Structures are given as structure tokens and as C-alpha cells.
Amino acid sequence: MAIYVYTTEQMRALERAADAAGHSYAEMMEEAGAAVARVIHMLWPAEETRVVVLAGPGNNGGDGLVAARFLAQAGFSVTAFLWKRPEQDQQAEQARATGVAIFPAEEDLHRLQRAIERAHIVIDALLGTGLNRPIEGTLADILKIVQEEQKRSRQFDDAPLVWFTEDPSFSIKIPHRLSVVAVDIPTGINSDTGAVDPATVPADITITFAGPKVGQLLSPAATMQKAIIVADIGIPEAVKEASPAIAELVTPALAATLLPERSLLGHKGTFGRVLIIGGSVNYPGAPGLAAMAALRSGAGLITLGVPDLVAMALAPKQDLTNCTWLMLPHDLGALKPDAIKVLADEIPAYDALVLGPGLGQEEMTFAFVWALLGLRAHVAPRPSGIGFIKEHATPEPEAPTLPPTVIDADALNALAAFDEEWAPRLPPNHFVLTPHPGEMARLCGVEPSYVQANRLQLAQQKAQEWQQTVVLKGAYTIIAAPDGHVSVSPFATPVLATAGTGDVLAGLIGGLLAQGLAPYDAARLGVFLHGLAGRLLADEYETDRGVLATEVAQWLTHAISALANIAGE
User: Fold this and answer.
1) Over residues 403-408, mean pLDDT
2) According to the annotation, is 137 in a ligand binding site?
3) Locate the YjeF C-terminal domain: which residues (predicted)?
């Protein structure tokens, strides 16, 4: 079952289409409230848990009251406070009939404060996606009470952010006395832009319906939700497939369909050969990390094309003893354009190329990148000769035809430094560009803050403009295809916010390209496995601190195995 990412208007259109197809708004509300109750019942014992539901006007408040009814029927102690919602509406009456105590929030904030002080769970069902103005007045007072009690009971920490399905594949730890569960989206988050009102209460769990809203993926909203569960509310699959969405979430089921097949009769040539070009005196380890990941991807043979001093530093490492080496010309550890001569005869033997990890930003190295990509022929100077006999500068050999290629790190900076348009000179749908926000900003000529505020739209726009697959790294990494399709990673974990993890991702995608995946599919699967490895490590160590890029590479095998298990293979 595909899970899509929606704008606010797209979600409303989807609900209208479902209603027109016979799945009514009332049925969707019943399904939504039941999903909230199921998740809470899965994580907390009913007989020991006190729940406060904050229900606002509209459908979001109705979802919260339906959840209150189901929780009360399951044995939870439930109190609901209504804001701008009549006490006699249908959902309130049905909840009251199951034993839910209901009070108007506006009339007795002291009662609300006492209830929240005693509560284990606060359900935020005040606005959902309905935010269209700054929060003020009584609503701000209500949220301030929750904020202050939340701060007293614990600090909202930097635990790993992860998407879950309704049946989580990973444990959700509830280490603090008061937990906040948001219905669809925390009150105060703009569901389109990711903007966060100062009154917003961070959610330990957000249960979002049908699919995530695009604003939940963007900064700063992503930092306000520790775990997000996508719940099914019964919208028919045919309606979802026929309705517009801004992106698709890379789910375990989707990722599992992209895993390359492994023939019992295969050999190292069957599973692809990867050439990794990079390394410099300042960054000798980067190509090694990429090679480790390419090996763990299942590729058959990995070669590192590096300066000899980088090879001498890396070759003894245990994880790289399975690699072969190609020594490339350099000057004090920085690759020179002369390397084209060596590569011209070697590259045709490879199925994929990874260009950039640890290259450095020397002028001659950028010239090498431009020449290799066929952007500009390198001209080697010759001595002027003696007397009337002059030797003229002669062009180096033409750039070789490249296999599918990952352009990463300083190779991206070389593109940004190129003084002419580079995109039209590259063969379309042949490259995977893997920028972090700073590199993307340089490629686009904008500030990093603009990149972060427009991640999905910018990645989509540039993938179409450049006619290449773009992987915009960061929390909820964006993968954009040349044809306009966009996918979003389900992972956002600080485990991956450490030096070298980008090199791991580049090598992983390169290894998948070598095994025959198309650029967009290799990028989607690579990003998913990379994030899954980070999440598994966080669970293993019970912390997101101190994990090394080498460990992420080593755990890719665990991630592939876990993916097969999650997907039910």
C-alpha cells in the first residue's frame, strides 16, 4: 500500500473524493479516532493511565473525542476539555455516554491545569491542519499550560525522529511522565510550510491520517515531532491512486520491491563493478567509507581510484582488503587533470562510478572533474621548444563515456564553480546528485536557509531542470526524479548527522547502480537503507550520540536483512 505526502488542499480534496466514493466524513472520523486510541492502547496500560483530551472545533476535535470514547471503553481514565466546541455535539455526547468527563476549557482553566498536572497523556486535537493565523487568547493559554507541565515533567530531548506505520517496527520509548499525542499534526504547525507558532507544544507522537502533510517534513516543524505514525482511515486505494499528492513516502514495502535480485549462479561480475574516485591529503578516509558502503550494498567488485598516498593510508584497513586500487596522478595529494589519461582505459570496465568523496577543492582538482564529466577539455601546457621549432599546447584525451554516476561532495562543488551552464552538457537521467543543504545552495545560487525552507519544491524543480536524480540530504531526505516524481525518506535521526555518513550514502547508491537499478530507484533504496541503518544503530546503542560513519556502513547488511523482515519476505 503506497503512502503519499499531501499539501493541506490535496488532503481536503482526497477526503472529498473519498466521501463522494461512499466513504463518508463520519466514517473517516470514526477510523481516525479509533487509530489514535489503538496506538495509545498499544503503548500504555489502560488501568494505570489518565488521559486528557483537548478538543477544538471541526473535524480534528471530533477525531479527538472519538478517541476519547474508544479509550474510555478500553478502561482508560479520560477527561475532555472543549475549546470553541459545544458540549452537546454528537461526538461529545457519545464520549460522555462511555464515561468521559467533559468540561468547557474556556470557563475553567484552573480545572484544566489540575487535570494536566495529574495526566499521563495529553491528546492535542485542537486545530490539526486548520491553522491560518497566530495563536492567541484562550487557545494560547491552554497550550501554555501544557507547555509548562511538559517542561516540568521532562525536557523534550533529541531522540531519533522516525516515521512509523501504525504497527511500529521499532519500539517507541516513553521515558517521561507526561506524553503529548497530536492528532494529525500538532497545533501551531503550518501543514504546508512547516512554520511553527511559539505556542506549539512538541509532540512525543503524532498520528497523522492517510499520509504525512508536507509541512511535517520541513524545518522547524520536523523538530517538534519525535515519532510520526501514519494511520489508515479507510480511504479506498483507488481514490488515493487517482488523487494528486506532492510526494510519495518510501515505505519498507516500497523499498523491498527495489532490492536487486541475487542469482544463485551469480559471480562478482554479475553483481556489478564500482569505481570510486576521490580522496586527498586532507580527506583520505572519505573514499574508503564510500567503498565500505558499496561492498555492503552487494556489489561484486569495488575499486578505489585515489592518489597513491591515500591508497597507502587506506589499503591496510580490514574493511577495504576486498577492494582493488587504481593509482591516479596527483600533486601533493590533490588529483590532477592528468588522471584522465589513466581513467580513459579503465572506466569502460565499470558498471557505476562514484565521483567526489574527499576530492578537495583545489583548482586543478576542479579542472579534473570538469574534464571527466566532459564539461571542458583539459589543455596540457607544453614547453616552448628551441629556436624555430615550437611545441604547442595539446588537448588531453577526450573524456571517457561514464557509466551511471553518483556526483557527491567536492564534485558537486566543482559543478557549482563551473562558469557556464553544466546541466545541458550531461547526458540526461544518468547521474545521481547528492547535495547537503550547503552544497545545494551553492549549486542553485541561493542561501542555505532558502534551501531548508523549500526543500521539496526546490529538489523537484532542479531535478527537472537538470534532468538528473537529486538527493537533497537532511532530515526526511528528498529524492527527486527528472520526470517530476518525488519521494521522501521516512527517517530523520541525529545518528546520521556526523562526518562521513554522506560518503557512506554515495557509495551505497553507487553499489546499487552497479547492480542494475535505475538512478531514481537506486537513490530511493539507498536513502532508505542508510536511514534504516542509522535507526537500527540508535536502537542498538539506546542513544543517537557517538555513532561513527564506519558503523553506519557496517550496519547496512543488518538494514538489508531488517528490510526483508519488515516487508514480510
Assistant:
1) 99
2) no
3) 251-563
